[in-house]
Structures are given as C-alpha cells and as structure tokens.
Write a structure and sequence with these properties.
Layout lengths: L2 H13 L13 H10 L9 H8 L14 H16 L5 H10 L16 H5 L22 H4 L20 H4 L1
Helix pairs in contact: 2-3, 3-4, 4-5
Pfam families: p25-alpha (PF05517)
Family: Belongs to the TPPP family.
Protein name: Tubulin polymerization-promoting protein family member 2
C-alpha cells in the first residue's frame, strides 16, 4: 500500500476514456466519482453526492480548476475518509481499499461483435414477423417472393368479394 500503488490507480482512472495522446495526470469529477463507484466504496453514509461536494471544496481545488492532480486527490481522499469513517486519520483504510481494487471497470459497455455484418443481418433466427420470410434457411434472400405476399384471390378482382371477373371485355 505504497504511494506508488495509489498513484498507479489514480493514473489508470485519469487515463480511462481518453485517447493515448489525451492522457494526462489529472482527474475530473466524473472520473473521481467513477473511482468510488467501480471500487464499491459507496454506502448509506457515504454517497456519490458526498464525493461531488468534496471534489469541489476549496481545500481540494479552486473554483476555476476543473481537474485535480495527485496531491489534490490525496487531500480529497482525506476528506472522504473523514466523511465515511469520522476521522481523517482513517485515510489509510480508504487507500488500502483503493489499492486493492482494480482499474476502471467497463461493465455495461457494448461488446464488439466478431461476426460479419452480412452474417448478422441475414440470420433469420433474429428476425420476427414477416421479415423472417425474406430469407431461406441458408440465409440467401428470396428476392421479390420474400417481400410480396401472393394471394390468388386478390388476382380475381379489384376488391374482396368482386364477382365480375373477366366481364369487362364482354361488355365493351
């Protein structure tokens, strides 16, 4: 539980979501909250609202700053420990939990699909309703037969119940 371990966790959350050229050793409020959320440090006594308030306190950063550096992060951890455990001296418990945790979690993120685009689009098991009729079992499209319902009764007249089939030529 050295300062280096804490710095490693701090840097991993700072770099989360940033491109390789955008990675900096500063943390914004969203990543500060993500650290506590991902490491499951919140409870009924210590909530995300508390971390938002602590992040913006004048002891941590000035009003014009949007991000905090590592020394400001350690000061914020002291204030968080005071809120959660009742004493700034218990910051060691916080640091121990943070260093024992892993880096930023990506749970709930969309997973990349390895199948080709055409394979997914023509998989009839995923289709419902009339769309599943457009492809055969092999995934090959049926063409016009898959898109149009052919009804022999509809060819007999203009509307349902039409009785005068083939009578036009006879009367004219």
């Amino acid at each position: 539980m050295s300062d280096g371990d804490l710095k490693t966790v701090f840097n991993s959350f700072c770099a989360f979501g940033a491109g390789s050229k955008d990675a900096q050793a500063t943390m914004d409020n969203a990543k500060f909250g993500k650290l506590f959320r991902d490491l499951k440090l919140y409870d009924k006594k210590f909530t995300s609202t508390d971390t938002d308030i602590i992040f913006n306190r004048p002891e941590v950063k000035s009003k014009t700053e949007r991000k905090i550096n590592f020394s400001q992060f350690k000061k914020a951890l002291e204030l968080c420990a005071e809120k959660k455990y009742g004493s700034k001296d218990d910051v060691g418990k916080f640091i121990e939990k943070i260093c024992a945790g892993k880096g930023p979690a990506t749970s709930g993120a969309t997973k990349a699909v390895k199948a080709g685009g055409v394979d997914r689009l023509t998989d009839t098991s995923k289709y419902t309703g009339s769309h599943k009729e457009r492809f055969d079992e092999s995934g090959k499209g049926k063409g016009i037969e898959g898109r149009v319902d052919r009804d022999d009764k509809a060819a007999e007249g203009y509307v349902g119940g039409y009785k005068g089939k083939d009578t036009y030529d006879k009367t004219h």
